[in-house]
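Hey, can you fold this one?
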Amino acid sequence: MAKSRYLIALGSNVPHHRHGSPRKVIAAALAALGQSDLKVEKVSRTITSRPIGPSRRAYANAAAVVRSKLDPPELLAALQAIERQFGRKRRGQPWRARVLDLDIVLWNGGTWVSPGLIVPHSAFRERLFVLGPASKIAGNWRDPVTGLSLRQLDARLRRS
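Sure. Predicted structure:
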């Protein structure tokens, strides 16, 4: 199978006992991605964003373009394994404070729908903390649902 390209969103708003601040968690997570079956091709700068929902801590966010032989569900499993290595426990509560969050945003194969996984990510079009970093490293990548580029989606959201 040919290698697929993915856009991954990274987020952290809880310090890690070994890696330190959320920004350092993002850096360590990027290193962990590179040590797995993924090839990290591009990485955005890390930004700070306000939390969504009940969490009160600011987030560190970034985006990465990676290549992998894995299909989307296999990649999701690999990303969740990295989250667990960083101490993430999934408790079914969205928008909780977390050491690390890794999401598949886009896949060059278009769309994917299966239990527990929808690609493109269902909410990425409304999130500046995803579109901002992503548009800097993959601005011409098109959303297979809307046909708009990440740069266009980012500009539209900033205007609204």
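The first strand starts at residue 4 and ends at 12. Let me know if you want another pass with a different chain boundary.
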